[in-house]
Structure formats: structure tokens, C-alpha cells
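WARN no homologs supplied; continuing
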Amino acid sequence: PMSAMDSGQVYTMDPLWETDAAESEKNDTVDGNSDTNDSIDQDEMEHCTDEHGVTLKLQLTDGRIDNPEQASFLSIYPVPGDSQMFYIRLKTNHYSFSIKKSCVTRSASSFYQFRTILKSHHPHLNIPSLPMLPSLWICSYHTISLALATFLSGVLAEKQLLSNKALHLFLQTQLPIQKIKDNLEGKRDDEVVVAKSKIVKDDRNNAKEGFGSLFGTANN
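OK structure emitted
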């Protein structure tokens, strides 16, 4: 049953705009450039979820020629000390996402508001369902996380929804639901992409060390 998370694993998560410096050197959080295509690792995602959350492996549709589909990973797990809030962590190399690694927090009820937005803008699509909201509060954290993750995975599996701005703002920004609605109604024009300097931490002094420190020199 739902209860305060007084014991067990303590969850920690870097804010969306802060990534580990060493990790940032391997994976460019803004444009997705990375040294290897297998940089998204399922084990890395699962260590965050533990028994209260869930990580799903997704295969997002990629219709581009000669571009093999790569796995994406979606994790959802509760925010410690707040039974209403859940982390949404997405790691993907799919071209439709500007940010390849993100983590935001959303209330469980906001998922239902988000579904309503999708239904109103895509009336002819079969939008994945969610359990009745009141029923969630008699379920375990793991059950709730699974229900929310299953819903999002169904949304992400629908190719037509991958271009929906509400989806990207919901998954990769902290914009409240009303402001997401305002974007779809033309009242706002928010973007997911943020300045690279806010995400990637690089302690190297490029002006002083020059390109030689980054790529090596003929004398090395």
C-alpha cells in the first residue's frame, strides 16, 4: 500500500540540467553525439529504480533509411518524501528528441491531464489508457510506476505522437500542464533545448590549453 518511504533504498537523481562531468564527456546531452552507439545501458537505468520503480526498454519507430532502430529506456520511480510525485527519466538516441538524457518530476495526476491533451489534439488516435486515478492510491509504488511507465511507453510507440510538442514538453521540461496547453494553443512557444553550458560540465580551460589538450599533438 502507499506509505511514507521511511526505510529502504534512498533515491537520488541529478537535476535535468546537471549531469556528471565524466558522463558528459562520453555522451553529449544536447545533440546526442556520443563515442559509442551503445552508451545507453539498461543496468545504469535499473540501479535508480530499485523495488519501488520500473525501467522499460523501448523500441521507438525510426523510419529513416539505413538507420537501425536502437533501444531507448524509460524509468519511472517515486520522489522520496512525496507520495504524489514521480521521476520520469528518459535515455534515447532517437532523432525526434533534442535531449538524449533527461529527468523530470511529474505528479501522478498530471499524467491524466497529459492524456486529455493528447486525446483533444489527436481525436482519431487510440491514446493508451490509464487506470482510474483513485485506484492508484491503494496500490504500491511499484504498481503505480508500472502503470505510468506502461502508459508512456504506449504513447512513445505511436509514431504520430512522437512529433507532438506536448509529449516533449511533458517528458523533458518542468513546464506545468497549463503552460504545455498554452504552447499547443499558440499562446507560448517554449523549447526543450537549453544552452549546452547549462548541461555539460567541462573543467578544461580550452582557451589556455588549446586543441592540443583535446586531440593530442604531433609530439605526443
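The CA atoms of residues 9 and 50 lie 7 Å apart.
OK
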